[in-house]
Amino acid sequence: MIIGVPKEIKNNENRVAMTPAGVHTLANRGHRVLVQKDAGRGSGFSDEEYSKVGAEIVQTAEEVFQASDMIVKVKEPQPEEVVLLKEGQLLFTYLHLAAAPQLAKDLLDKRITGIAYETVQLDDGSLPLLTPMSEVAGRMSVLVGAEFLSKAKGGSGILLSGVPGVKPAKVTILGAGTVGMNATKMAVGLGADVTVLNKSASKLIYLDELYGSKIKTVILNEFSLAEEIRDTDLLISGILIPGAKAPKLVTEDMVRSMRVGSVIVDVAIDQGGVVETIDHATTHDDPVYVKHGVIHYSVANMPGAYARTATYALTNATLPYVVKLADNGLNKALDFDNSLREGVNVIDGKCTYESLARSLDLPYSRLETVI
Description:
This protein has 371 residues and is of the alpha/beta class.
């Protein structure tokens, strides 16, 4: 199979979809890997490192897309990349189509086979290709929030940890999944006053056993959320419904109730975000805006800021699936691996992921009826 690795072009997206080690693995199995010039530079990998292990370095994205059977990326294709996709091509990347209806339409119209990292799901319900980036984003969310709480960045001037005799900042974390768990770890480690809200009591019990009196846990509902938000300095959201648009849990009235200079970091922005006052994704170049006196951070590719760590973490998880697809072809790989089947969002002009179809009001087709 010919596998293409284009250079990412989303704002400040410095990750790359494959490390030289991944190229080495695929080349040794007889596959051709086309890597666009400088694709790995943002993650610290030179073209020479790729060529030494068997990659073919090509100059342009057009060459990568035109020659490849499978495109492996990090982020969803941008408009200038969508036009380069060939009908029937296999695309393996983060897609987040519930928050991108036009992209979904384009992929359906081009009859692209779109396998989304974020919906590949194991039998136990875990999301192996989303987890590593959720770990990075969860940990980042606390660092970012602490930065924007500083007066120099427009915040209220509260130090996350406080100092002896001065109480720490209150950090409220929505969701106890991978993002929430990692945000909790960082916030506790930095000495913040941490409250975690989650609908499932079992995850809160786990966190309580892990951290004891270092955190507070609260069952998430509209009333408890409004109560906790009112005196929160930093609100972090990590709510996720796989493949579907995120629910708007934090209302505009709740945001109005927050203190001036407090900060919201909505990690769920890739799926549309859970905060009513967050109506668009921001970028690393221009990461925040202020509404009702509250700083809103909604960067859609947070891990791109720590590209080397994120690239290693991501490709450690994705490479086995890339190998499976390359070695066996699409249909056989899907027969072998139920988790990969869960990743198929669109194929042959049809939407095969039910929650995505509901989110975008598209006809839903069971995958077995399409392949």
